[in-house]
Amino acid sequence: MEYSHSDAELIQQPIGYWSWAAHKAVVSRIRAALAGIGTTQPQWWVLAQVARADTVRSRNEVSRLLENYLDTGSESMEREIGVTIAQGWITEDSEGRLAITEEGQAFYDKAAALQSELWAERHAGISDEEYLTTLKVLQRFIHNTGGRAWHH
Predict the structure, then answer these.
(1) What is the pLDDT of residues 5-18, one digit of tens each?
(2) CB neighbours of residue 108 within 10 Å
(3) 90-92 sheet: strands from edge to edge
(4) Residue 109, Cβ neighbours under 10 Å: how many?
(5) What separation in angstroms does the CA of 146 have from each of 15, 22, 54, 120?
(6) Which residues pair with 98 in a beta bridge?
(7) Mapping DSSP to helix (H, G, I), strand (E, B) and coil, where does residue 57 land?
(8) 38-119 belongs to which CATH class?
(9) Any alpha helices (H) in the chain, and if so which ranges?
């Protein structure tokens, strides 16, 4: 890969721009690929939270957990949970507990395979060590600027 600037020039580049550009490129690619199989990124998050849960989660738990992902918001997450229910991928009982359906599990497996392909695509030519260093550096930038970030 050819970089956009020499090392001497790159060291002076703003992290805000490059982290934004990386965010935009990665999220746009993920969302386009998920749209290609008939879902949205927030619907994927809901489906993954229900499919991967060790214990049954309630609608409220899933909504609270995901409402801060990429500034989604609680109203939006409630709507996305409703869509996953309407799609027949998950069910909600009278106490608000969510469960994955057989159709949902099949769709989750398809979407998870796509996510694995996208992961491999993003990580091409990037070692685990480089990736780990990148995440730690980004976390330090967040900490140093008084920001907060958390991902589950």
Answers:
(1) 787 887 888 899 99
(2) 21
(3) 57-58, 97-100, 90-92
(4) 11
(5) 15, 21, 33, 32
(6) 57, 92
(7) strand
(8) mainly alpha
(9) 7-10, 15-36, 41-52, 59-66, 74-86, 102-122, 128-144
pLDDT in tens, 92-117: 999 999 999 999 999 999 999 999 99
Report d(CA 89, CA 69) in Å as an integer. Answer: 21
Q: What is the pTM of this model?
A: 0.86
- Rounded distance between C-alpha atoms, residue 37 and residue 117, angstroms: 13
Cβ(100)–Cβ(56) below 8 Å: no
List Cβ neighbours of 131 (8 Å cut-off, separation of 6 or more): 123
**How many angstroms from the chain centroid is the CA of residue 82?**
19
pLDDT at 2: 72
Which letter, b or e, does each residue of 80-93 get, where b requires 16 or more Cβ atoms within 10 Å of its Cβ? bbeebbebebbebe
DSSP 117-129: HHHHHHTTT--HH
CB 71 within 8 A of CB 77: no
Encoded tokens for 147: 């920001």
Instruction: Please tell me the distance from the alpha carbon of residue 75 to that of residue 63, in angstroms, as a whole number.
Output: 9
The domains of the chain are located at: 38-119
Residue 137 structure tokens? 């550096």
